[in-house]
Amino acid sequence: MLSSECGYLVRRFAHLQHEKWSKIPKSKKQSKFKIDLNLPHVCRCVNNIMGGRYRDMRHWMYDHYLDYPSFEEALKHPYPGICLNDWDWFCHNIYNSTSFQTQSTKNKANRAKLPYVHCGGSRPFVNYLEDDMVDGEIELFRVTHFNKTNGWVNEVAHSKHAIFRGLGNRPHPTSTRGIDTSEADRLYGIISSQKSRLDSQDVELKEQKKTIDQLESKLSQFESMMQ
């Protein structure tokens, strides 16, 4: 998969002493590929994937940083595979910066407001459907909010899934007869909007898949050169 190849390139070759992927000079990005990044759609596709993998890498490094009780202790223990010079730069210029700490506090506060979070990792939800890994949106919700080891992410998500399953094959109610159907209406709206969004993305996804197939072929050639 192209995303896996990009993840490998980020972990193995990316210049880490930059605030984000878009700040890395173009010349340093181009040197890692044997593909024509002058084509706008190819460049956009690759940069979107590489930017995501770069953020993932930084997130894993930050989790490692938080494993230690103090800044000084964290400095002594670089993330596996990261040289001490890069780790020192990250700790001083990113993790210990006022702007990063402020944003981190805001992110924690925002996450605390969510009724539940998913456990689907960094993989885009639409990829599960595109690759036929799940059968519909209800199954997608289960896969991304439940795992065999820890169960449901919380009871709210479990209850929502039960409601989704109950509504999955039912006709939309046409008469309330005094019954409050506001929750059902809201859920029908969510399902409908998700289906509409996926339908609108279908054409774009097919084009992206075609581009990705071409890139994977070229990247496999690049990988063989490295062996």
Automatic annotation (TrEMBL):
Organism annotation: Citrus sinensis (Sweet orange)
Stated name of the protein: Uncharacterized protein
Coiled-coil residue windows: 198-225
Keywords: Coiled coil
Record lineage: Eukaryota, Viridiplantae, Streptophyta, Embryophyta, Tracheophyta
